[in-house]
Amino acid sequence: MNKANKMNVNRLLATLSHINQYGANQHGKGITRLAYTPLYEEALRDFIGLCEAEKMTVRVDAFGNMIARREGTNPKLPVVALGSHMDTVIQGGEYDGTLGVVAALEVIRSLNEEEIETIHPIELIVFACEESARFGASTLGSKAMTGLLDTYSVSNLRDKNGITIQQAFQDYSLDFQKIDKVIRKREEFKVFLELHIEQGPILEMQRKKIGIVTGIASPTRIEVRIQGKASHSGTTPMNDRQDALVAAAEIILEVEHAAKEESAFGTVGTVGVCMVQPGAMNVIPDSVHLQLEVRGTSEQSKNNVLDSLFRLFRELEERRGVVINPSVIIVERPVLLSKEVVNMLTDCSNTLDLSYIHMTSGAGHDAMSMGHLCPTGLIFIPCREGLSHHPDEYASAEDIEAGLQLLKEATLRFAISTT
């Protein structure tokens, strides 16, 4: 590494630890900091104070997104934006999202210490409600900012305690009726950059410091209800059954099989929910509720998997005498990130002598929303064993420093050039 570009990673780690005191489980079971909760509000207020200490002007928009601005010598130019999110999953780790906003702050601190002025303003954005842990829908804050939010659908979201998102807004001193005010224009941004742990094992396995993301996979999520016929398990012949669970088992296996057929495109399929009724050992299952997703960066590949599933649904109805009702929960389009930004990050990595690969992201990020609005870059660093959304989530100080160096270098190149 170029020593001239050495960053204060110890200060970053101290700040990360400081923010993660909000929601930390005293018994070592990770961090729970859900969007729009008092704990989240306390953490964000603390982080706002850290931004203000760096002479940044801070505002919180009508969706709860925090925007801190470091002025450039030409305030009228579009901003170079950095950021991620601070909300977590339930019993999550220390790095997912939060590392990205703390790293962005460390870039600002470094620029201030070196008294570096940039032509373009720099914004640090903490997006609200990136995780689906509370309301079952993800990247809401960045979707709101980029005009991708389906306001009507979102208005009906509830958490597991029955609290609506509108009530959560009210408790958080936000007005849900004003969320259309948060939409920003393309010309406001020059670029958006996000630093994140990979949440997968590829960088660690290939012993690379940096993943330069070229595209972000998107999910299509489907709910499948299978209606069979309950009857006595001991008196109903095997050839005279309408077993909903056996039909569901075929669907689950087909998700795996069809996704493997598309593995060359990086497409994956997962059945994450399987609820069986009536749930008695001596009763043939009457109904099954599945929730599944197909995720990838190729829409055609995703559609190939879905086509296989829908063909199977019709076949199972005829062969097993069940009724299958699928319904689409959400369809999101894959995002290909800016080639210009990918090339810039590649050049910066070469300059800093950082090993890297170009790769796609299987997980969604706020960069996915921002990629619809402006040129966007997503930087990955390794995480141990690819583990994420887990209390044992970990990234080494050395890898964090590499990502931080790259984030600063790219920020400077974009912020000091008017082209």
From TrEMBL:
Transmembrane segments: none
Domain Peptidase M20 dimerisation: from-to ranges: 222-316
Keywords annotated in UniProt: Hydrolase
CDD domains registered for this protein in UniProt: M20_bAS
GO molecular function, one term: hydrolase activity
SUPFAM superfamilies referenced in this protein's UniProt entry, alphabetically: Bacterial exopeptidase dimerisation domain, Zn-dependent exopeptidases
InterPro entries according to UniProt: Amidase_Cbmase (IPR010158), ArgE/DapE_CS (IPR001261), Bact_exopeptidase_dim_dom (IPR036264), Peptidase_M20 (IPR002933), Peptidase_M20_dimer (IPR011650)
PANTHER family referenced in this protein's UniProt entry, alphabetically: ALLANTOATE AMIDOHYDROLASE (PTHR32494:SF5), ALLANTOATE DEIMINASE-RELATED (PTHR32494)
Family statement: Belongs to the peptidase M20 family.
UniProt name for this protein: Zn-dependent hydrolase
